[in-house]
Design goal:
- By secondary structure, this protein is an alpha+beta fold.
- Helix content is 41%, strand content 20%.
- Helix 1 runs parallel beside helix 8, helix 3 packs antiparallel against helix 4 and helix 5 packs antiparallel against helix 6.
- It is rod-shaped.
- The N and C termini lie far apart (87 Å).
C-alpha cells in the first residue's frame, strides 16, 4: 500500500508529481472491498463474537451540531448515505461539515469493546451513545486536512448501556473540500469501521496492517538492498559517475518510502512543512535518476538538461500552491486544477514515460547494449505511468468516475492490499538489479581485458625504453623516467655512433593512458630502426611515420647530436628547448610531429665544454603543480644545473601532474 496522500505518485521512484484530481486518495482504495450494505437504523450484532464491519451505508447529514452525537436524537429524516458513491452523486454539494450515524444492537452484557477505523479523511471525532471515544484534527474554521489509517478506540463500559448503541462520526473536510465531487470528509469508498471485543479488534488491526503495509515494507527492503549494492559499486568503481547518481536516486526513493510508512498510521495535516520533505525528496530523486540514465546512455549534459533539472526542482512550489491554496476552495475539475495537473504530467513525462523511449532510441541508433538493457526497467516503471495518465485523461473527459480512478490503483492479491504502483515498483527494482549485475560483469570483463592489454603495452614499453639506453663511451649520460600512471606518454632514446658521436632524443605524445603508450611504442620502434644521425632528418622521418597512422594525435620531440669534441646540433619539434648549465638554448618555434606532411625542422649548432651538462626534459617538470601553483619555467634555471634524478625528484615532490622525463648529457 502506498501513501494515502500520494495515490498517483509512483512511490518507489518518487517520479510522479501529486495530481490535482486525487490529492488525498488512499492507495489501498479498491471498489472490491467486502463491505456489506447493512441497514444503518438497525444493525444486528447481538451474537457479537468476532468484530463486525459496520458496512458502507450510514445515515448522514450536512452541518455541525454536537447534539447529533446523542443517542436520543431523532435521525429519522437523515439521508441514507452510501459511502461507495461521491457526495455529489447523492445530492450533497459544498461538503465541509458532515455527520454520520448508525444504530447497532449488541448483547446487553457486552464489555471491553473497541472501535477500529481504516482510512478516513479530514478531521474526525467518534462518539458511542454520546460519549466521545477519540478522534483527530481541528473543528474550528475549515478544520484540518488529515488522512488517518487504522486507529483503535476503546469504548468505555459506561457508554455501552443496555445493548443498543448509536455510533456517530463528526467529520470536517478542511482543506480538501471539493464541492462534493470527491469524498474528502469522514467516510469514503476506502473506509472500514469495525466494532467488536477489544482483543479481537486488535487482532484484526494487526492483520490489516500486515495486509496493507507488507508491499511497502517489501519494496523498501528491496530498494535498500539495491541501494547497498549501488553504494558498494560507487565506492569500488570510483571513476564511473553513474553509480553515484543512481545511489542518490535510490536513497531518495528509500527516504520517500520511509516517510510514507511513518505517516501511514498517523493523521497528518496537509501543510507546507508536511508536504515539503516528500516533494523535495521526490524531485531530487527524479533529477538523480535522469542523470544516471544520461550517463549510461553516453549523452552530454547540455543546457536543456540543466534547464529541465531547474524546472523539476522549482515545480514543487506550484504543486503545493495547487494542493494547499487552490483546491481547498475549487472543484476538483476546475480548469486551473486541471491545467496544473496536465502541466505537472507534461513536466514529469520526459522523466517517466520519455526515458525508456530515449533508451530504446539510443540502443537502436548506436547499437548500445547498455541502453537496450536499461530500457527494460525503465519500460517496466513507465508502463504504470502510461496507464495512469490515460485514466487521468478519461477522468477529465468525464468518461470514468473518481471511484474508477481510485479502484484502478490497486489489485487485491490473496487479501493483500497491494497497489499496482507497488507491483511495478517491485518489478522495477528487480530488473534494475539485473541491469546492475549484468553491466557490472561486463564492465569487470572489459576492465580485465584492458588491464591485460595495458600490462602487455607496459612490458613492451619497458623493453623498448631499456633498449633506448645504451652504453655511451666518452659521455656521461643520466636518465630519469617517472610516468604519472602505469604507462607513460613520454619517451627518450640514447644512441651512440661508430664515429664517436651520440644522438639523444626526448619527446612527449598527446593523450593519456593506453593509446598514448601504444604511440610511444610505435615511436620507439621507429627510432630504433632509424639509420640517419642528423636531428632534422630524424624528426622529418618520424613525422612521416606518424602521418601514416590514423588518429595518432601529435608528438613533441627534441633531438640532439653531440660530437666527441663537444660540438652539438639539435632540432626541435614543439618541445622544450635544451638547457646547458641552467641556460636555455633557444630555437625557432615549429609545429609538433604528426600535423603537417612537409614540415621542416631547423638545426641549431653549439659547443658543449667539458664539465658542462646538456639537459633535455619533458613538460612534466615545469607543469608540476602544488596547491594550484605551477613549478614554472623560472625554477628551471636552477633545477637544470642538477643531475637528471635530482631534477625528476624535485618535480615529483613538488606535485607530479604529468609524465616526467629528464636526460642529462656531458662529456666524460
Amino acid at each position: 500500500m502506498i501513501a494515502p496522500r500520494r495515490i498517483l505518485r509512483f512511490s518507489l521512484r518518487g517520479l510522479v508529481v501529486l495530481l490535482a484530481i486525487l490529492p488525498l486518495a488512499p492507495a489501498h482504495a479498491q471498489k472490491s472491498v467486502d463491505r456489506p450494505a447493512l441497514n444503518p437504523r438497525n444493525i444486528d450484532a447481538s451474537t457479537l463474537g468476532a468484530p463486525v464491519q459496520l458496512g458502507s451505508v450510514w445515515l448522514a447529514h450536512q452541518g455541525d451540531d454536537p447534539q447529533w452525537a446523542q443517542p436520543a436524537f431523532d435521525d429519522s429524516r437523515w439521508q441514507v448515505f452510501n459511502t461507495d458513491l461521491p457526495p455529489v452523486a447523492q445530492g450533497m454539494k459544498d461538503v465541509n461539515a458532515i455527520w454520520y450515524r448508525t444504530h447497532v444492537h449488541i448483547p446487553p452484557a457486552a464489555r471491553n469493546l473497541a472501535l477500529m477505523t481504516t482510512v478516513m479523511f479530514g478531521s474526525d471525532e467518534f462518539f458511542v451513545n454520546g460519549t466521545r471515544i477519540g478522534g483527530w484534527g481541528a473543528f474550528t474554521g475549515d478544520g484540518r486536512n488529515a488522512v488517518a489509517n487504522q486507529f483503535i478506540f476503546p469504548i468505555p463500559d459506561s457508554a455501552l448501556g443496555s445493548g443498543d448503541l448509536v455510533i456517530a462520526i463528526r467529520a470536517r473536510a478542511g482543506h480538501s473540500s471539493h464541492r462534493g465531487d470527491f469524498p474528502a470528509a469522514g467516510l469514503s469508498v476506502v473506509s472500514q469501521v469495525y466494532l467488536g471485543p477489544a482483543k479481537e479488534v486488535a487482532a484484526v488491526n494487526a492483520l490489516q496492517s500486515f495486509r496493507n503495509y507488507a508491499s511497502n515494507t517489501t519494496n523498501l527492503t528491496l530498494v535498500l538492498l539495491v541501494l547497498l549494492i549501488t553504494v558498494a559499486l560507487a565506492l569500488t568503481v570510483r571513476d564511473e559517475p553513474e553509480y553515484h547518481a543512481l545511489a542518490i536516486a535510490l536513497a531518495c526513493m528509500a527516504g520517500y518510502q520511509i516517510l510514507t510508512l511513518l505517516t501511514l498510521t498517523r493523521a497528518v495535516p496537509t501543510s507546507f512543512w508536511t508536504l515539503l520533505p516528500g516533494e523535495g525528496i521526490s524531485y531530487v530523486g527524479i533529477v538523480a535518476l535522469i542523470e544516471f540514465v544520461r550517463i549510461v546512455l553516453g549523452l552530454r549534459r547540455s543546457r536543456w538538461f540543466t534547464l529541465y533539472y531547474a524546472a523539476l526542482l522549482l515545480w514543487p512550489a506550484a504543486d503545493m500552491f495547487n494542493t494547499l491554496w487552490w483546491t481547498p476552495t475549487h472543484a476538483i475539475t476546475n480548469p486551473v486544477s486541471a491545467i496544473l495537473g496536465v502541466f505537472s504530467e507534461a513536466l514529469t513525462a520526459p522523466a517517466t514515460m520519455g526515458l525508456p523511449l530515449l533508451a530504446l532510441w539510443i540502443a537502436v541508433r548506436r547499437r548500445n547494449f547498455d541502453a537496450l538493457l536499461l530500457s527494460i526497467p525503465l519500460l517496466v516503471s513507465a508502463s504504470f505511468d502510461y496507464y495512469r495518465f490515460a485514466v487521468y485523461l478519461l477522468f477529465l473527459a468525464h468518461a470514468v468516475s473518481v471511484n474508477a480512478v481510485i479502484s484502478a490503483q490497486q489489485t487485491p492479491i490473496h487479501a493483500f492490499n497491494i497497489g499496482w504502483s507497488e507491483v511495478v515498483s517491485f518489478a522495477f527494482s528487480i530488473t534494475l538489479l539485473v541491469f546492475l549485475v549484468v553491466r557490472t560483469i561486463r564492465l569487470a570483463r572489459f576492465r580485465a581485458k584492458a588491464a591485460s592489454e595495458l600490462h602487455a603495452v607496459k612490458t613492451l614499453q619497458g623493453l623498448l625504453l631499456a633498449r633506448s639506453r645504451q652504453a655511451t663511451p666518452g659521455y656521461a649520460v643520466e636518465t630519469a623516467y617517472r610516468p604519472a600512471s602505469e604507462v607513460g606518454g613520454d619517451f627518450f632514446l640514447v644512441s651512440p655512433g661508430p664515429d664517436g658521436s651520440i644522438v639523444a632524443i626526448v619527446g612527449d605524445v598527446s593523450g593519456k593512458g593506453l593509446l598514448a603508450a601504444m604511440r610511444v611504442s610505435l615511436i620507439l620502434g621507429a627510432l630504433n630502426r632509424e639509420s640517419s644521425r642528423h636531428p632534422s632528418e630524424i624528426l622529418s622521418r618520424l613525422n612521416q611515420v606518424l602521418l601514416t597512422q590514423s588518429d595518432m594525435g601529435f608528438t613533441t620531440a627534441c633531438c640532439v647530436r653531440v660530437e666527441s669534441n663537444g660540438d652539438f646540433s639539435f632540432s626541435n619539434a614543439g618541445h622544450l628547448n635544451p638547457y646547458i648549465d641552467g641556460q636555455e638554448i633557444e630555437a625557432p618555434g615549429v609545429l609538433p610531429l604528426g600535423l603537417e606532411p612537409d614540415q621542416t625542422y631547423s638545426t641549431i649548432a653549439g659547443h658543449l665544454n667539458p664539465g658542462q651538462r646538456l639537459v633535455l626534459l619533458s613538460d612534466g617538470v615545469p607543469e608540476a603543480r602544488a596547491k594550484r601553483q605551477l613549478l614554472g619555467f623560472d625554477k628551471l634555471l636552477e633545477l637544470t644545473r642538477l643531475g637528471a634524478s635530482e631534477i625528476a625528484d624535485a618535480a615529483q615532490n613538488f606535485g607530479q601532474e604529468d609524465d616526467i622525463t629528464v636526460l642529462a648529457l656531458a662529456l666524460s
